[in-house]
């Protein structure tokens, strides 16, 4: 895979830049981390060379000087919101993130529950759960008029109603499971609390996307717009930056909308603001670490198409209208890409047309496309997985990695004892059977050795995947899209 992003250069420059901003602020710095602090999978897809742990690696340079504060929106608990990339709830992800940060040696003691209302029983139960686990919880209330009524917000009737977090380090990184978790409001509330206590503090933002020094409609920035289409976020030219400096910089609507509050609040608390625009308050040097623009453009275009298919599947699965997919279709048009750019899609659809049954196709790293069809023994994803491993290992396509005789007992177990209606093997069952065979079969062992080379490959299936196959591909690092249809008609489907 070609690299478009220099990870080491980024880690070095970004750490230095954060320290420079700390010196500029002078006192305590609240650093809002936009996007995912850990496992930023979107960034690793659109910036080949960016690893999911890049931000953690950057912060490790400052580990002894910072602490991490995690926020979660109480309304997301009511909605049981999940991280689609990991298929876990925001509630569980908060606990997972705390574990990850602590294992890496970061001080992480506090969670802030934002937009809390008295009748939010899910949030209250989660607070009790956190406190039983020894986590300190601060409760932040819904503030009427946020973010426009600055006078009310910056008062005892606004931020003054929020519980203050007693931090111990001068660099406080504020992160969350996902967007809309109240990170900015938490930072501002803390600055208000500091001011009331005579503590000098300031704010800066680390937002990976959109990348401020790339054009508004650069595919990497458009990929961010596609990723947040469900939030109705859009990329915009920062009007404050244009007015202050006569320079175009890319921002997005929510930062632009909330900037007047931030600037007004800083002026109310300290007499002046160090920032004249949302771009000023950022500490993002991601654009400076792009070393091959065309590689990143193509990766971003592929991501936009993936997001389009994902939206179609979500709309079909949840019986929603086509609002999100229509927004992403517009983004695809801006980026000059289409579903035809995902080359394995046509091959999967052709095979389905030929066989009259679901099919799948995978694009290997060297450009080869391998397909899988549905049979009496295997589902199309399982067949494709075995075929791809044979191709990578240089095993004759006619060789059966798993003999029909070895598959039959598994099918009998599924249908006669486990109550399954589908006797075909799924991807997890195929991998387990292959692992067992590896003890006596050289071909099976060689095939298993190639699993690592599937990471980053693209797959398309002609039907919506079940949760098991979806999870296996996610764990293998395979990037999957599907046609928005089910293999069989049914009113009830297990999630």
Automatic annotation (TrEMBL):
It comes from the Bacteria. Residues 4-335, 340-492 form the DUF1846 domain. It holds the Pfam family DUF1846_C. NCBIfam families: PRK13663.1. Belongs to the UPF0371 family. This is UPF0371 protein H9627_04840.
